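Problem 12. The chain below contains 217 residues. Write out its predicted structure in token notation.
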Amino acid sequence: MPPWLTSSKTLHKPWTTTSSYNNVRATKERYHALEGIMKANHALKHFEAMQAAATQIIAQGNLAVNATTEATLYLGKAAKEQGELKAAQQYFAQVVQHTQNQQAAEAQYLIAQLHYDAKRYQESLEALFELNKQFTAYKQWTNQGFLLIAANYLALDEIFQAKATLQSIIDHAEDPTTVATAKEKLAAIGQQSESPVQITTPEEEVPAADDEFKTIE
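Solution.
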């Protein structure tokens, strides 16, 4: 019999390979189970269980694409909803620092929202301008960002800027829900204002601060 058939190393190779495959498969299945637990408990506001699942995902590393950044984002959301705002901002900043995907776009928006909720309106605007600059491909969050820009301007009593931003959303956004929300907010400002809402014509458009919606920074 040829020596290679009796080699213990050779005979054990197939078993080792199969064992490794099974281990990887089991680990990935565990990740998907933890991901489901994390998301379900977040929806139910069971934050302790959600945080435990997210922490385990991070400990396992990136077994799926962006697994750790998603888990970090969820830790930030849980912290925000529990009023741990400093921790939330740190988690969101980690996500933005380590990736440029949709999760990072959401994290950048949530940073701006934290500033807005704390009445740090200028800091919120700066975070939103960065969102529009770095994450233009993620319309869901840039659309929300423009609505929050308008809210910041309104809080700063910069009514003209708020109106211009909302009108720009109406003129340029493609998402019907975003456009409807902008129209509602613009109408509300018009009702509160003594002067009528100014609807800009193409010849009177406000100077642009970005390429997507023509708003003023």
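Discussion. The domain at 100-217 is CATH 1.25.40 (Serine Threonine Protein Phosphatase 5, Tetratricopeptide repeat). Students who got a different answer should revisit the alignment rule from Section 12.3.
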